[in-house]
Write a structure and sequence with these properties.
single chain, mainly alpha, 0% strand
């Protein structure tokens, strides 16, 4: 189908203009390709990419001798997999989902008042969490809340009450952030001004083997998610238990970026 073919085009063979269009329209491309897919496949697509992102984060934090991912993030991912595999109902984790979502909101608006202090202390902790971990926390919390909303559970955030399907925005958000990081990691001069110099910088990023490898990996994850059968989910989780989103040599630099 055209939408699926567009998602899985070989990014390395596209022209500079086609690469710009593909990246700028990535969310719409993913949404179109998954339009006919059920929530299990949509959730699996998120989880396969999220797992690899988390392993790079863990690797970088470990190399920098920083605190590992928070208990709340680890539990959120565990619950998402458990739900996908049919072991847990969203109604069983609605309290956790709302509390974690409140912590993300509190972080984003710059104060902890909106979140339960007890939950924050237990699940987020006192360690200074990196922006990369907060991306993962927001991504996982949003997925949990979407599942709770779809199941008709308690949703404290009015903006999340009417959700009818699992979203794929987290993957797109991650690609945007890692695109910025790849600029630095690939040694490309940063330009913040819009115009021809900015386009030149983007052309270099999209042509960089590191970014092209990142895109190809995400495409492989989403292709796997579309083709996977429910009885394969547990094996996929095991297969992805150590895969990373970036090559190992970039993990520590990413955490510091």
């Amino acid at each position: 189908k055209p939408a699926v073919m567009e998602l899985f085009r070989d990014f390395s063979t596209l022209s500079p203009g086609e690469r710009h269009s593909w990246c700028a329209g990535f969310y719409g491309i993913v949404q179109s390709a998954f339009r006919e897919q059920d929530d299990n496949r949509r959730l699996l697509g998120n989880l396969l990419v999220l797992e690899r992102y988390l392993h790079t984060l863990e690797q970088g934090l470990g190399e920098r001798k920083k605190a590992g991912p928070s208990p709340g993030l680890r539990q959120a991912v565990e619950l998402l997999w458990s739900c996908l595999e049919g072991h847990t109902s969203p109604l069983d984790f609605q309290d956790f989902a709302n509390d974690l979502d409140a912590c993300v909101f509190a972080h984003n608006v710059g104060g902890q008042e909106a979140a339960s202090q007890e939950f924050w202390d237990r699940q987020i902790g006192e360690a200074q969490r990196t922006a990369y971990e907060w991306l993962a926390l927001e991504w996982a919390a949003s997925l949990l809340m979407e599942l709770v909303s779809i199941a008709g559970g308690r949703v404290d955030d009015p903006d999340k009450e009417a959700i009818s399907q699992v979203d794929l925005y987290g993957i797109c958000d991650m690609l945007d952030i890692l695109e910025d990081a790849c600029t630095e990691l690939a040694g490309i001069s940063v330009c913040t001004e819009q115009g021809s110099r900015y386009k030149e910088m983007a052309d270099q990023v999209y042509a960089a083997p590191l970014f092209q490898q990142l895109v190809a990996g995400i495409q492989d994850d989403l292709k796997t998610a579309i083709a996977a059968l429910p009885e394969e989910y547990a094996a996929l989780r095991e297969a992805y238990s150590s895969r990373t989103i970036l090559p190992a040599q970039y993990a520590a630099a990413l955490v510091e970026y």
